[in-house]
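DATA CLASS: polypeptide
GOAL: derive structure tokens

***
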Amino acid sequence: HILREQGQLLRVLVVEDDETNRFYINHCLRQAGCEVLLAATADEARQFAKSHLLDIILMDLNLPDTDGISLTKELRLY
């Protein structure tokens, strides 16, 4: 398991619009012992970033409602 200093699971936000990719990434990260949050849109990603302490964000660069680089820059402010 991948743990933070306090013994908690590493919390990963996956921002991916393709359902198959989300499923596969979720499976791999959970197998590695991570806590996974899944977002299919920029709005969902914003909600998770505002309401959860995240360790890592895996970002799709080509989302239907925005590009991943702009969204990453925005989420870094939260």
In short: The first strand starts at residue 11 and ends at 15.
